[in-house]
Amino acid sequence: MNAPKEAVIKMYTKGEDIYPREVKGRYATLRWLCVWLTQLVFYGLPWLQWNGRQAVLFDLTARKFYLFGLVLWPQDFIYLAGLLIICAYGLFLVTAVAGRVWCGFACPQTVYTEIFLWIEQKIEGARSARIRLNRQPWNAEKIAKKSAKHAAWGVVALWTGFTFVAYFTPLKALVNELVSWSFGPWETWWIFFYAFATYGNAGFMREQVCKYMCPYARFQSSMFDHDTLVITYDAKRGEPRAPLGKKAANGAAGDCIDCSMCVQVCPAGIDIRNGLQYECIGCAACVDACNSVMDKIEKPRGLIRYATEHALVNGLTNKQAAKRVFRPRVLIYTGLLGLIITAFFGTLALRTPLKMDVIRDRGSMGREVEDDQIENVYRLQIMNTGESSHRFKLKVEGLEGAKVVENDVIEVPGATTRGVAVRVRVPEHAGKHGSNKIEFELTGIDDPSLHVEEKAVFIVPR
C-alpha cells in the first residue's frame, strides 16, 4: 500500500500586485476633501502662532504641552489621556454606526496611500500603463519614471517627517537647524524614521498595513451588527451576472455586467460581490465605479452601495434604515462619550492655572530668633500654568501670629515655575512643642480667583 504524499501548507502566500484604477465620483471627491483637510491641519498647525508662540507644541525638553491657549504640564497628563479616550470612544461610535468609514476616508494610512498613488499615476500613467511599465524590462524610460516617482515620494516623506518633529521641537528652531543643517541626533533620527515609515507604508505596503499590521482592523468587527452601515453588493438585483452583449439573449440576467470595475478600483484588491470581507476599508471606490457603469448602461444606481445587512435583506428604504441607528449599542457609546466629554471640559473649565508645592527646609529645623520668635524655613515651588504673568500675595494660617517675613508678594511669569525661599515666624508662646499644622495661602493680587492652599508643618523646638 502506497503511503499518502505529504501536503505542503503555506502559512503565508505572497499577495498579487495591486494597481488601483483611478475613479471619479461622489465618494472619490469626499475622499480627496478629507485628504486636503487632514493635511492642511497636519502640515499647517506647526506654522500657526498663538500669543507669540507656536499654537500646538509638545515641548518635551521644557516639559510643557501647548494646545492653543492651554498650557499643560506633566502633572496635567490626565488631560492628554482624556483627549485620547474621547478620540477612542468617538471612533467606536463612528464604527458602530458607519463601519470602517474612518479607515476609508481619514486614516493616515489611507490618506498617504492616496497621495502616493496620485503621484504614481501622474508619473507612470493610468492602470494599464503602470502594469505594462512594471512588466517590461529595464530601459531608459522605466528607469526615468521609477526614479522620478521615488524622488517625489521621498520629498513628501521627508517633509512629513520634518513636520512631525515640528510638533515636538519649536518650528523656528527646527527651520534654523535645517538651514544650517545642524539637527540634533534625536531630531535627525525621528525625521528619517517617520519619513521611512511614510515612504514604506504608503509607497510599498499599502493594503498590507490594513490587512496585517493595523490592530484596529482586528477588533473592529466586534462593534459591527446587522444595522452597521457597510459597503454591500445587491445580489438580488445583480445576479446572475452576464456581459452586456449577452444580456439581450438572456432575459433573466441581473444588472451586473461582470465588468470587474469594482475590483480594478479597489485599493485592497478584493471583489465586493463576494460579500463583506475584513480587507474592505469602506472607501466606496467600488460604489463610484459601479455607479458610473450603471449610468452608461442606463440602469439605476446603487447596485453597490452603502447599506446595512437588515436593509439589504428586508428591502428597507434609507429612511427606515436610518431609524435603526438609535439602537442600544449606539446609545451606550453616545452616552459614555457624552459623559467623558462633559467631565473633561468641566474639569478643564474649573482647573486653576496655579499650583504650589511646599517643602520645609530639613537642614534648618525650627529655631529661636530675635524678639522671642520661632522661625522655620520653607521652599515654595510655584507653578503658573497660564500664559499671563501674575503677582501673588502669600500668607500663613494655622498658628496665632504666624507671618511671612520676606517674599510675601511673589511675581511669577506666564507658563513658568518659580522656586522661592520663605521664612515663617510665630511668637514663642504660639503652638505646642513639636510639629504644628499650618497652611500656606497664595492669592492673585491682580486676579483674586487665582487661589491655592497647601498644608505644611511648623516645628516648635522644645
UniProtKB/TrEMBL annotation:
Keywords: 4Fe-4S, Electron transport, Iron, Iron-sulfur, Membrane, Metal-binding, Transmembrane, Transmembrane helix, Transport. InterPro entries: 4Fe4S_Fe-S-bd, 4Fe4S_Fe_S_CS, Cyt_c_oxidase_cbb3_FixG, Electron_Trans/Redox, FixG_C, Ig-like_fold. The chain crosses the membrane at residues 30-50, 77-98, 151-168, 188-205, 330-350. Residues 245-275 form the 4Fe-4S ferredoxin-type domain. The keyword Secreted does not apply. The keyword Acetylation does not apply. PANTHER family: FERREDOXIN-TYPE PROTEIN NAPH. This is Cytochrome c oxidase accessory protein CcoG.
